[in-house]
Amino acid sequence: MLLSIQDLRVSFRMGKGQVAEAVKGISFDVPENSTIALVGESGSGKSVTAMSILNLLPDNAVRQGRVLWQGRDLLQASLAELQALRGKDIACVFQDPMGSLNPVFSVGDQLVEPLMKHMKLSRRAAMERAEGLLNEVGIPEPTRRLKSYPHEMSGGQQQRVMIAMALSCEPKLLIADEPTTALDVTIQRQIIELLAKLQASHRMSVLFISHDLGLVGEIARQVVVMRHGIVREQGPVAQIFAAPKDDYTKALIACRPSLEGNPARLMVIDDHIAGRAAQQTAKPKDPQAPVVLEVRSLAKSFWLRQGLFGKREFKAVHDVSFQLRLGHTLGVVGESGSGKTTMGLTLLRLHEPTGGRVIFDGRDLLELDDRERQVLRRRIQIVFQNPYASLNPRFTIGQTLVEPMTIHGIGNNTAEREQRARALLEKVGLDGRAFAKYPHEFSGGQRQRVAIARCLTLEPEVLVLDEAVSALDVSVQAQVLNLLKDLQDELGLSYVFISHDLAVVRFISDEVLVMKDGVVVERAAAQEILAAPREEYTKRLLAAIPRGYRAAA
Q1: Most CB atoms within 10 A, among 35, 47, 313, 419?
Q2: Cβ-contact 460, 496 below 8 angstroms
Q3: What CATH number does domain 304-551 carry, 2.40.40.10, 3.40.50.300, 3.40.1000.10, 1.10.10.60?
Q4: 456 and 424 Cβ atoms separated by less than 8 Å
Q5: What is the pLDDT of residue 472?
Q6: Do the beta carbons of residue 11 and residue 21 sit within 8 Å?
Q7: Binned average pLDDT, 10 residues per bin, the chain of 553 residues
Q8: Which pLDDT does position 42 carry in this prediction?
């Protein structure tokens, strides 16, 4: 057995004698030449379990139990012994490649470092090996890319560099911790296929960590399902998907949006565990509802330097047109770089457009002066992908919600604004205790609820949601999507919902725009575009969606 985890317990000393238990006595094995998946929501303990193997945990962590690596207990290993294993026999690939790659060193410099340290290669030999690794993980022009810096590469290319670095010393075990979470579906598909191919060719084992059961169904042989620091179920992939025994496993499989059916609400984890029935089919929207936002031939270009004095035009968005009706949702899908986020920012004039019109309430938003734009801006709000980056860490949640009301003169006094803020927190599913807390005290899903509540303080009519649920667990994602639907029904909101996830877009959208290279390549009703896509690009996006849970069922 390559790796055997036996009764592992991990806790964190929190000060004042308090201890938080993260992992509560779990056991599983990783055989040679196999892929094992650890699956669970945020806070389930799966990443803590993986990081315990090489003790990549903070100093306040306490580990108990046994972690047997080829029969040797790593919990008893010295720091020098662990450092000899790290990167050589056991390598890691993390969720955010930009957080792992050094921005001031070239890709080549970062690849040769472990080769020179662990394999004792000369710099020249290490650079030749690095070029071969980049070629193996599918990066074009590997010789040129060795001189590139991380910021000059796309997210998918950065993740490929991380995989190349992890493979450089031919490890026996690769720990892949949420390696595809922030990537669009086509790049995610490429990374999954790449890992599967490399696992087979190098005959190494992979410990694959994810919150998406549909994804791990396509790469793993065995699945270990975790919740609240314990193992709820484990077994072969086919068995877990075909006949899950634990209610939590059943709930994880079922709560992700499907490309089939059109429920009014998504079932969440607690619904499944409590045995509550699924909601009926969603009611159709009024096709003749008034148009609240009309975009005509919207364009946005960026000018890039070329040579010493020259520059060239890059058309990020070109000739985009659509209508958004009252109480409707327009889904905008495409790969990274398709221009969908730039389009959303441009129609709000967070990027200044280079052409087109955006008609709202009979006025062109692109022609308003600063004062007029400030007045209308409260009626069109945006929710970003990363709520932690868009919430001020020094403001309490109460201050975050009260500030925009103060700026726009909503409410007669502070007491009235605070009362309204508390009511909005309840509306998005947070209790009054959240008012005095700071953003870091909340989970990702809770922070996204706060971001939505902040938008609602200004009583908007249109919300632009830019990848607002893409980084969330499937169960939290279902809660936020249900919340958005409830708010739309109650307040008559209209949404521009930007996402790379077609299953999510199908659930929440009435109409879908498919974008590629800044241009709309297909536009139709949500059910129509997914049932019978016309464009090859749309078909490719659909084909990239993880279907492990259906294939095994």
Answers
A1: 35
A2: no
A3: 3.40.50.300
A4: yes
A5: 76
A6: yes
A7: 95 86 95 93 88 92 95 93 91 82 93 90 93 89 90 82 89 90 76 88 92 82 93 92 88 78 78 73 82 95 82 90 96 88 92 93 88 85 83 93 92 92 89 88 82 91 89 80 90 92 87 94 89 90 70 37
A8: 79
- Comparing CA positions, the residue from 352, 335, 35 lying closest to residue 196 is 35
Whether the full predicted model's pTM is greater than 0.70, yes or no, is: yes
Q: Which of 152, 143, 65, 141 is nearest to 111 (CA)?
A: 143
The token duo for 102 is 């050094």
- The single-letter code of the amino acid at 532 is A
Which residues, 6 or more positions from 528, have their beta carbon under 8 angstroms from its beta carbon? none
Tokens of 386: 């990363």
Question: Do residues 164 and 82 lie in contact, with contact meaning Cβ atoms separated by under 8 Å?
Answer: no
Which CA distances in Å does 331 have to 323, 340, 408, 461, 525?
A: 12, 10, 29, 17, 10
Residues paired with 325 in a beta bridge: 291
Residue 550: its pLDDT value, please?
44
Residue partners of 50: CB distance under 8 A and separation at least 6: 38, 92, 175, 177, 207, 209
CATH class of 1-89+171-181+199-254: alpha beta
- Cβ atoms of 508 and 329 within 8 Å: the answer is yes
For position 552, what pLDDT does the model report? Answer: 37
Cβ atoms within 10 Å, residue 158: 20
